[in-house]
């Protein structure tokens, strides 16, 4: 009895010492909470271990989510000044940028979609905009990496089906090749808008306008600014009348932020302001739970508890892009900041879990759950949960740091407007040697690569 009581008491002490204390508005408190959550996040990463591959998260996390995580860590550094993770971030992005500087790593070919590349590209863009330490000169540079992606996407834009747009997948052999979706086109739009603002090159702005208009024309952005998931290509005639109407938080977020960047780039044009306002309304009315104090939720799957690994990270991106919107369209700050603050408080209350490794390897009592609407830890852990909560807490600092720079206002990253996929996989006949080097084991996949060639060339 006595021993048990003592142990229980120790456990309780440990718990109360570890739980995340967060005093919103107190910068030190926010930074300390963010630091604790970031520590738990990075503990999932193994890519810097000897023998592992820099940039990769272990299973079950896909390649793109690692890109999203490093993008989050760049913002973490920009907001908090804590450079603990800069070294692994530089190592990861330059490694996955590959020696060609094109975010087309051969190891990922079997699942490489335009959106997957996009999350790495947005990390590189954030690095340029925040003057994140530049990589050594012989490595791919942040701005050039984003420009390379822009150029790849522009060359993959396809008018023959759906009247335009990017397909989800790059290669014919991947599921989703016949689907044009909002996140792929959203990544293209978001980076085009940011390149326009950063470089002042109007070609990027023209593309941003074209992508947004296509989204509207095909119905993926509704007249009341709701963003739908994607359209299926009718292979027989190239029309696209079958739509997945689902609304995911990251789709609205990525267009909201890109529109805010365009608003800024055009010195406050009314057309982009209308779009920012519309999408902000769409986000508020869709992804904030009116039955739970208007706390953010992933409305399609969170109530039922069936969000998959990918979906369990989306709230973090909506948070990121809402915060970024307040920088690009400062008039939105008063509307957005209170939402961010309420989410931060709610998310911190969900960061009190103590599951044993491998579910969580951070400090006991600080694991973050998925739901922010319950006031406590819901037992769900992972990179998404941890990254969402880190975002919720750290982006409350957004009004306290300088806005992203441009080439004219102190940006130092070296660009290359003509950078593109140096050796797009499939652009040349794939040899047996290539297949072995790329780790392909079945000839079926090898044949698929050759088939992918036809699309890329045509
Ligand atoms: C990997 O990076 C983390 C975070 O910076 C660090 O704590 C850890 O020691 C690194 N691992 C190795 C093997 O260097
Ligand atoms: C591809 O996989 C090999 C073998 O695991 C690894 O050595 C290499 O670093 C990987 N390349 C990239 C860009 O991830
Ligand atoms: C925005 O303002 C800047 C500085 O006054 C000017 O150089 C630029 O041309 C303007 N852009 C637009 C689209 O009006
Ligand atoms: C564009 O962003 C900058 C940086 O936040 C801000 O100072 C400026 O007011 C913004 N422009 C407009 C039109 O809101
Ligand atoms: C502007 O961007 C386009 C598209 O990438 C590129 O072709 C052009 O060379 C760029 N212009 C300048 C002046 O950099």
Automatic annotation (TrEMBL):
EC number: 3.2.1.101
Catalytic activity: Random hydrolysis of (1->6)-alpha-D-mannosidic linkages in unbranched (1->6)-mannans
GO biological process: carbohydrate catabolic process; fungal-type cell wall biogenesis
Record has Transmembrane as a keyword: yes
SUPFAM superfamilies: Six-hairpin glycosidases
Xref: InterPro entries: 6-hairpin_glycosidase_sf (IPR008928), Glyco_hydro_76 (IPR005198), Mannan-1_6-alpha_mannosidase (IPR014480)
Keywords: Glycoprotein, Glycosidase, Hydrolase, Membrane, Signal, Transmembrane, Transmembrane helix
Regions that span the bilayer: 436-457
Signal peptide from the UniProt entry: 1-19
Family as reported in the entry's similarity comment: Belongs to the glycosyl hydrolase 76 family.
Name of the protein in its database record: Mannan endo-1,6-alpha-mannosidase
Source species of the chain: Staphylotrichum tortipilum
Organism phylogeny: Eukaryota, Fungi, Dikarya, Ascomycota, Pezizomycotina
